[in-house]
Each structure stands twice: as C-alpha cells, then as structure tokens.
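User: Show me an example of a complex going from sequences to structure tokens.

Assistant: Sure. Here are the input components:
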Amino acid sequence: MSFTSHTENLFNQLPKGLQDLMESARDATDNAAKPALQRRTFLKVVTASGFALGAFPLMGQAQTAASGAATASSLKPTQQPSAFVRIDPDGTVTVTINRLDFGQGVQTGLPMILAEELDADWSRVKSQHGNADAAYVDPAFGIHITGGSGAIKNSYTQYRELGARTRAMLMAAAAAQWGVDVSTLGTQQGVVIGPSGKRLGYGELAAAAMKLPVPESVVLKDPKQFQIIGKPTGRLDARAKSSGGQSYGIDVRLPGMLTAVVAHPPVFAGKVKSLDDVAAKAVKGVKAVLRVPLDRGGEGVAVVAEGYWAAKQGRDALKVEWDTATVEKVDSARQLTSYRALAQTTGAIKYNADVSKLATAPRKISAEFVFPYLAHAPMEPLNCTVQLSGQGAEARAELWLGTQMPGFDTLAASKVLEVAPKNVKMNVQMAGGGFGRRAIMSSEYVVEACGVAKAARAAGLTDAVRTLWSREDDIRGGYYRPMHLHRAEIGFDAAGQVLAWDHVIVGQSIMGGTAFEGMMVKGGVDDTMVEGMKEPYDIPMRLSVHHPKLNVPVLWWRSVGSTHTAYVMETLIDEIARASGQDPVAYRLRQFGSKHPRHTAALQIAVDKSGYGKRTLANGRAWGVAVHESFNTVVAYVVEASVKDNTPQLHSITAGVHCNLAINPTSIEAQVQGAALMGLSMCLPGAAITLKDGVVEQSNFGDFVVPRITDMPTVAVHIVPSADAPTGLGEPGLPPLAPAFANAIAKLTGKTPRELPFKLA
Amino acid sequence: MPTLNINGKDTAVNADDSTPILWALRDTLGMTGTKFGCGAALCGACTVHLNGAAIRSCVTPIGAAVGQKITTIEAVAADRVGKAVQDAWVRHDVAQCGYCQSGQVMSATALLKTNSKPTDADIDAAMAGNICRCGTYVRIRAAIKDAAVALA
C-alpha cells in the first residue's frame, strides 16, 4: 500500500467512527497497563514456560489481571517490552512481530533488529505473530497494518528501543544480584557479564528483570557496533517451511470444526433468486445449506460440511438461480472503449504544468497504454475460521486467519456478529502469500466467514466453521489490481529535453468509498493511482485522472500504482532517450543529476555489475534498463532479453537496490528476486483478468497465467551500502522489471509494447 | 472404509473412494503438511509420492491408491534424498511464504531419486508443474543442484 508520503497523523484522518473504535481498544489496553507500570506491582505474565519481560501484558490477559492503583507511564503500548519479548528460563528469546508475515521476511527481520540491541544469542531467538492488541499497531500509522513496505521502515527504531529496554532491565537485575553498579556490566550473546568475568544468562535473569521498572529512555548502539543487523541471515521459519511443519490459517484444526464453501453469484453483488438444495443436502457429510449475505450487498449460498471435499461436492450439487438483473455487468471490451473516450478529456488535476509547448515541439510521442485487471492469487486460498460462543453481552468470537489488517477485521467481525470488539479475539496466522489480497478495507472475506458462522450457529451448528475458498473463488472473487488506460502526449527537443508532457490516466479508485478515502483521495485524485508518475524526472507535466465507478471490486496489488506508472514512465523516458540518440543509462543519470543520488547509485551499481555497455551480448540479445522509486526504496534493473518468433524472453536480471541500511541482505535478495518475477508475471500472455457480461472469464491457473520455473531468468541483486535508517523492500522490486524488459524488446523490434501482458504482432 | 499405506503405515481412512488423497490427508487424518492450492493439478502444492513418483493428490482419489505406498512431506525426511533436499532448502533459504514448498520439496525429491545430476533443463522440466507465487525459483534451482552434490 501507499502511505509513504502520509506517515504522520494518518489516524486523525480516519473517519470518526473508526477512530472511536480504535481509541476504545487503546483505552482498554492503556488502563490495563497502568497498574503494571507501578514499581514492584508488575503483572506477572506467565506463559507456557517463560516470562514476558517488563510490564505490559497483552490486552486479553490484562483484562483478567488488571487491578490496583495506576501510575501513568509515558510509554505507549507499542513501546512496552513485555508485549514483544519473552525470555524462557533456558534463554530462548521469543519476539512478537507486529505484522503479518506472508513471505516478506519480517518474521526474521524484526527479531533481528530487537535482538541486536538486546545483545541476544541469535541461535536462541524465535518469533511469533501478534494480534489485534493495541501494542501491535504500526507506530507511524496508529492502526494495525502490514503494507506499504512499511514494517522495517516504521518499526526499526521501535524494535531497537524494545531490545535496548529489555537489555537494560536484564542488566539492572544482574547488578542487583551481584550488588554492583550497573555501569560496570556489559552484555554479549544472551549473557550479562560482570566484574571479574562473572556471567548470568538472560534466562536466569528474566524472572527478576521482569519485576523492575521499564526504562523510559534508552541509548541505542552506534550502527558501527551492529553484530546481527546487516548480516546475511537465514529465515527463522526455513526448516518448518521445508518440512511441512509450518502451520497456516488453512491448517487450523479445532474440535468438531466444519468447513464451508460458498457459492458466489456469477456477477459481483448478485443475489439468490431461487435455490434447490436437495441434491446438495444429500451429499454425505453436508450439515447445512445456508443463504448468506456477501460483500457489496450480494448474497451467496454456503454449504457447511465435514471437511472441504464434502462441502465442495455439496456446492457443486446446488441448483441456484441468480438475480443479477439490477447489478451492472462490466464487459472488458466495452470498458476499454469507454476508458479510451474518457482519456481524451482532462480529468481531476494532479499536476498542472503549462503544456502549451506541445504544439511547437520539434519531436513528439503520442502513446496509449492499457493494463488489465490482475488477481493476486496467493498460493494459500483465502480462508477464515470462526468460533462463536456465549449470548448477548457475553457473546464472544474467536477468529483464525492470515490478515494484513487485524484491527479492521476485528471491527468488521464485531459488526457482523454483533459481538463487542473487546470480545472478538484475532489469532493472526502465518499466511501463504497475499500481495495485498489480505488487506481488505471492507474485510470482505472475513465478513463472509462471519456471516457463514452466524448462520450456521442459528441453524444449530455450534462448532467452529472454517470458510475456505476454492482457487476458482479466488480468481473470480474480485479485488483486482484495477484495469488502467494511460494516454500521453509528449513534446521534446533534439537533445531529449522534455518541453511538455500531457498525461491522462483512467482507472477505478482503490481508496474511493473506503475508510481511507479522506486521506488518500485529494481533489478527486486517488494518490495510489498516480504514485510513481513524473518523479524523479524534472519535466513539465500536466497529469489528470478519471476514476470511473464500476461493479468490479479493486484493490492494491504488490507495489500498487507503481505496477503501471513505472511501466509508463520508464518506457517513455527510454523512448525519448533513444529518439534523441542518447544512451538510456547516460540519459537517466543526467536527469537524476545531483538531486537524486539514490537513483544514481542504484542504477550505477546495476550498470557496473551487469557489464552494461562493456560486455558484448550474444547475437539477438539486447539490454533493457529501468529505475523506479516506490515506498522510499529505489530499485534499478539492467536486463538481457531476446525475441524469438515474436516471443520475448528474459535471460538475466541485474538489480541495484537502494534501501538505506540493509537489515538482512539475504531477505533483501529474496524479496527482489521474487518481486522481479511478479513484475515479469505482468508481461506473460494470459496474465489478465477479463469480464464478459459481468462474468470473470478466468477461473484457475490454467487460464490466469502466473510464472513458472521455466519463466525464471537469473537474478543478481546488488545492494548500495548505506547507514541511513532502512526503507522497505516487499514491493519496490516489482515496478521497474516490466519496463526494463519492454525497453530491451523495443531495442530489438523498434517498438515498445504498450499493452500488458505483451501482445507482439 | 479404504485402508491406505501412508508413510509406511497402514491407515484406515473414513472417506469414500472418490475422495482425493489431499482431503483424506488434510481433513480426515489431520496431516496438514500437504497443501491445497488449485484443486485441479495446475499448481503442484499438493504433491505427494505414490510409489516414489510425484503425483498431484488433489485429483487422485484414495480409491486409486489402495495397496500402494503414499509418502507425504511429513515423512520425506526419513528418506536420504528427501532429507538432503530439505537441508538444501534450508541452506539456500528457499522459502518465502513457504506455502508451496511442501510440494516443491516433494517434486525435487522425486526428481533426484531418478536423476542424480539434473541439468537446468531437467530441473525446469521436473519442477514446471509447481507454482511459487513468491518467486523462489532461482533458489529452488540452486538448492536442487546443491542437494545433488551433497548426495553424490
């Protein structure tokens, strides 16, 4: 997601109702935390075998344990070590992460940051997911969110301080035990070292340390002292994920748990006209067939059964007549025609430079770009398990799911289930990919699962219900990267100097109609659609947008607006360079000048390491280059490609990455490799979602194409050294790949592909 | 009630013959290491071994597996090749979200059991049925080659 330019006061811009709900959760937690912060009256949070250090218990635990007088603390829930660190007597350190790990590696990266300042023994560090407790909000946004490549960027200082606070408490405990001044102590790899070499392990000190005050201010290390940060480090979950031992949301098993598969209407927001469920109910294992409300006012039919297979068989046996008479039926061909017409007119203005020089410019480019809807298609199909209990004010709900926004989902579940937010317990599970699909502002699949659980309970089924989507449900389920059309009219001179650039983008607003509309849609322009336009180039641009409203739910897709803006900008810049007889790398470096040193450094390292301009390529191959900043990180690609029988092929990728301080180079390399491939995915024939009379035409990996190992080029990742505070990497590796590939194709064929996926004549 | 030989153990499965092996494993027996990805033999997340060969358990009914040997990700480390593949997976830090990796490991193990020195082309051919949406393919290639060296 794209909040990079809005890191302050986002909370204040949320709708009032949402703020109130967030605040009530926070207040409950703050009150609970207060007694714990009084000296010597700390709550003892005993876990299975260890102690949560310090004083800040998880919200649920606090509610049962809170009592006594209150002492205000200047520390926020996000700064309390006990919500984040547990040290077992054997010295094992468990770090709680305030994000969803769905592959991007924060499950290892955040513990590395904390362990650094803690001076932990890395071989004894583990990690676990947090939940919807107030401690686990993003410290910059004040809401629970995994997105915008913000985990490391926004929690770097937070996790360092948490580690340093914990270390200070352990040292204070050792000083008390030895009767020495704390200034005489040091720490190393999970041990406090005292005068004359006395040693006490963190595990031995944890019980005493947790009774000591939490220091409010701490001194952090000089980055030159870092031992863990910056070291290539394997994922903490590597073994579990290589041996079938990692549990995901889909793997949750509860006693008596039932599985629901929902028949969704063929057109978004359609309803059930008539239902014949006789055959479905006859399927062995089917317990109930229930009409359930769906997202956007739609209605579906849930088949609840013992296990997925019975539920799926039951769904296949349903005879449903759908009512789609009153809903809009989007058709991709008609949509393209209407977008094309809209692009001829000026829309809501983002940039408003004088473009009058277009008329007289000696050279011109007139271009139209088309990008289709794209599904996220994470490998773990969407699922959410719900257990309901109690009645009235005592009604409770417990949910298990992989989600990027557990706070939003809590509120959504609360509303559907009519259960107070404090009685909704979220169990955030490791997720099998997401790419944005598990951050739904309407909490669509959570709302659906809650609707199913509620209906099942009303039908007398009291066990937990897991609602599980088939792959077909996922591909046809909407919340796509929006379809876009760009139109550009560019005038430039013989030296490649842009004199005027008139640009229009047409595409649905992602933020419109959501809780984020107020903060992200300004003057009719959804920032997530225009991010990545113009910058870093100093060009006179008039940019306007149209946001048609259509009956297709849309959503951020890894790197959001940059999935299309980077393609448009970087292929056009390349075209201007080539048209004015300039080397595309030299042209870009000149444009970056002294104003954009990170762009220059990223491009330069990719150029140097690839041998661009120095190495002679094999016959039929060409270089392609692109550079793009997204989410405060700059990635440059130099690629080698060929075209054979009108089929473009990408052979090698050299990446230059500027993400400031590299926390875990292994993870950075993996993220760039993966994001590059997802960038390539946009180019592959078949990588498009299309609609015919309101119905999505694709259904599974057979017709919605995603890259396979046979599509994977070699990837070399080079990181620009830096000691500045780190920026994120979940997304920035994606945007520049497709344009770099396209620029190589343009060199080989003389024509830049202007439609994704590539359709070469 | 069919009896299946799963990971060397005869196991009675309370499911109809037509139930795919995947759902018998996951829902009936609670063995969740084998993953559901597409339900149509298009992604390979559900790969298990049937008599040592990689098959897609989401489209193979249990009735077709009676009297044969099923091996799943939970037991593949008991096999020398399977263990070498898993160790290489860890050394190369292959997994990201990790959801497809049970299937990837099973396909790679089946490959190395019949081809001890696979080329890039061999690897691509054997692994093309296994989708990884995170894009770990570079590391998968390297890990398979490394496992082959470790086994030599």
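The lines above are the inputs; the final block is the predicted structure for all two components together. Chain B is about 40% helix and 10% strand.
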